[in-house]
Design goal:
Strand content: 5-15%
Structural class: mainly alpha
CATH architecture: Orthogonal Bundle
Bound molecules: FE2/S2 (inorganic) cluster
Shape: elongated
CATH topology: Arc Repressor Mutant, subunit A
Order of helices and strands: EEHHH
Number of helices: 3
Largest sheet: 2 strands, antiparallel
Distance between the termini: 51 Å
Helix content: 55-70%
Number of strands: 2
Number of domains: 1
């Protein structure tokens, strides 16, 4: 779905930006994609999508790096 109509930015674009480009803040999102830089109507929705994507990224990171994947029973 479109999150920012003024800049044509979708939720998929935001999620990809978080997961692949490391974007974590509204400031970064605004600088890279222009989200909420014109009318501002998208700000709360963009924050919500960004927050969800960052939580998902952090959860994946923790699962991949901190939890043991193999157990040795010897
Ligand atoms: S809808 Fe995002 S700045 Fe207007």
């Amino acid at each position: 779905m479109y999150v920012c109509l003024c800049k044509g930015v979708t939720d998929k674009t935001i999620r990809r930006a978080v997961h692949e480009e490391g974007i974590s803040t509204m400031r970064e999102l605004r600088q890279e994609y222009g989200v909420a830089s014109q009318c501002g109507c998208c700000k709360s929705c963009a924050k919500e999508v960004l927050s969800d994507a960052v939580k998902e990224r952090n959860k994946r990171f923790l699962e991949e790096t901190l939890l043991p994947t193999d157990v040795c029973y010897t």
